[in-house]
Amino acid sequence: MNPVAEHASGLIYGFVGLGLMGGSFAKAVRTQILNQPGSRGDILACDARPDSLRQSEQDGIISEGFPPDKAGDMLSRCDVVFICLYPRATLEFLQLYRDAFKSGSVVTDISGVKTELLSSLPDCLRKDVDFISGHPMAGSEKEGYSHASASIFTGRNYILMPRAENTPEHLEFFKNLVTSIGFRRIIETDAVIHDHKIAFTSQLCHVIAAALVDSAEDTGITAFGGGSFEDLTRIAMINAPLWTELFFANRKELLYHLDSFEQSLQQLRDCLENGDRDKMQQFLEQVRIKRTDMSRIEQP
Amino acid sequence: MNPVAEHASGLIYGFVGLGLMGGSFAKAVRTQILNQPGSRGDILACDARPDSLRQSEQDGIISEGFPPDKAGDMLSRCDVVFICLYPRATLEFLQLYRDAFKSGSVVTDISGVKTELLSSLPDCLRKDVDFISGHPMAGSEKEGYSHASASIFTGRNYILMPRAENTPEHLEFFKNLVTSIGFRRIIETDAVIHDHKIAFTSQLCHVIAAALVDSAEDTGITAFGGGSFEDLTRIAMINAPLWTELFFANRKELLYHLDSFEQSLQQLRDCLENGDRDKMQQFLEQVRIKRTDMSRIEQP
Question: N or C: which end of chain A has fewer CB within 10 A?
């Protein structure tokens, strides 16, 4: 059995990108795994921001930081690598450092869009490196290592896209890992379904939130807020470069769901314009039932 | 000086409608005002549901409950009356019980739409009754007295629409009252501005949430949720009859903001369809700045 799978102890974890997500994963691995009684192992990280690396060393999260041009030195020592970069940068990193990964290592990513990444993998991955693709359904409207927190994963969904090449031992190890750091539910699917579903639950929601903020007459409107507008638009405090990339990487699926949303919106508009109160009330009652059913679906 | 304004002590508070809102107000008045050291006074309530009245008596919130056909008996004893009914029912109640209110009493409402109500007041209000119209920006997707809580008002906005007829003493008393039960910020405006702003912050948000839930392919979609979809659609667990009434009572304003929202949405769609990444990123950056500015506006 592979040493990674045999014991989750004594492993070297490497983080490529120590921002909000990479930093949160590193903190979670440190506190929920390595700091547990009897556990051994270490954490390394690579980031373009020396401040983040220094702060994380001071926090006792990582033991050593690497600038981007030393990424290869880090990778050669890591049993488990988290690539916490934007989607396109993830693919470029895998291509660039194809030969630097440690043989037998497990590598994962956090990309919000998967189809292109997973279809490109065969060209940029060695056969002795096991890439397990996942999408942690967690985040924050705040960016950077200074906002990273081990607790952002608690109770969240983790979407796992197993590949035929993944060994059962590595998959088992990895599921235990994400469960250990707080994820409650692991959904296994493939890249196409992932991108279709995520275009709705994540990207369309960000588009709607952005449009709603844009359409506000002024910023003083929140004086009239009772929580609804605030809840609908918190995610509009958006990382513009990242979300532009995500929207375009999943453009077809996003436009598909945008069409559906606009059709539903048109139905409500028709009720209003035609004075059709009964139809409006029926629509809202069906929506209430549907959303309440969604709330009940807590376990797979 | 009017006895109501002189001391907020020894007053009889009456609640017409003891559902989520009326029940929450009654609980807040009991715990935050009447149960305070040295305070006196009492709470009566009128509701069509005997169970709610009985439960509230058992909870020690109200001292006596009245069925709807005895509302007049209650009103004649009350110094302060909270009418916690749907907007149209509020107006009908005022008309029906015009002669039952105690002379010199302060009466308030919680209607989510104000223009029609306030313009109809002269016909259904005696000159010796002071009607102060307000909109508590608080609520819950759960209904009924059993979900009422004194804490739902904590830190919330309260929109006050003073009328020329309101005495300064009563307005002062009323502002102290809503502050005492937890509201943080009182915004004073008129019915027309209220309805215009609320159509955006509240009604449009509910329309969007309903459309988004309606457009979901299935209820299992939340397995792919990371919080965005959940936050955007919590308010879609909607009280259909109430919100149908609110939407139609404010139809013109709601359609105005719906147009604006759809125009913003169209801009984002255009960026996607035209492959205009730079424009998309600029749009999102402006939205981020605008929404962040909104978050900073905490005090008037």
Answer: N
